[in-house]
Amino acid sequence: MSQTTTGASSVDVHTLSGPQLAEVQQQLTQEIQHLTGSFQKLQQAQLKFNECKATVKVISSSDNENKELLVPLTSSLYVPGRVVDHDKVMVDVGTGYFVEKASKDAIEFFDKKTKTLQENLVDLEKIVAQKSSNLRVIEDALKQKIAAQQAEKKKPAASS
């Protein structure tokens, strides 16, 4: 494992200097941190869609017709409301647009979103694993360079 892959090209890490290896190490660390943050955000979005799906299932029950509930206006402000039509919900489809959907269609919408996010999470997990592997190779090469430099410094001192 003496090579790291960046895009379509690969470089023998042992040909890089110490400062170059340190720079690549820093870049890979930043990329991994960014990708890990993205991974967490995707997981949170997936949880949100699953919660929405569960809520639609509860609301769509015919037992909930004309049932009173609290409607959130903000994260800390609610107003009383009433379920008028248990089979219709307003779904946030993104960028501030809402679409009225039948409960069954809303559940399918959230299922599709969750599935897409799961696929993205799997892809992202593979990328993070590859970047982490590359980082380990870089760190090993950097340790070898440092050890070699320290050995070189000791040689002239030993021969004096």
From TrEMBL:
One of its GO terms (cellular component) is cytoplasm. This is Prefoldin subunit 5. It comes from the Eukaryota. PANTHER family: PREFOLDIN SUBUNIT 5 (PTHR12674:SF2). GO terms for molecular function: unfolded protein binding. GO terms for biological process: protein folding; RNA polymerase I assembly; RNA polymerase II core complex assembly; RNA polymerase III assembly. SUPFAM superfamilies: Prefoldin. Gene3D superfamilies: 1.10.287.370. It comes from Geotrichum candidum. Belongs to the prefoldin subunit alpha family. Coiled coil: none annotated. The keyword Nucleotide-binding does not apply.
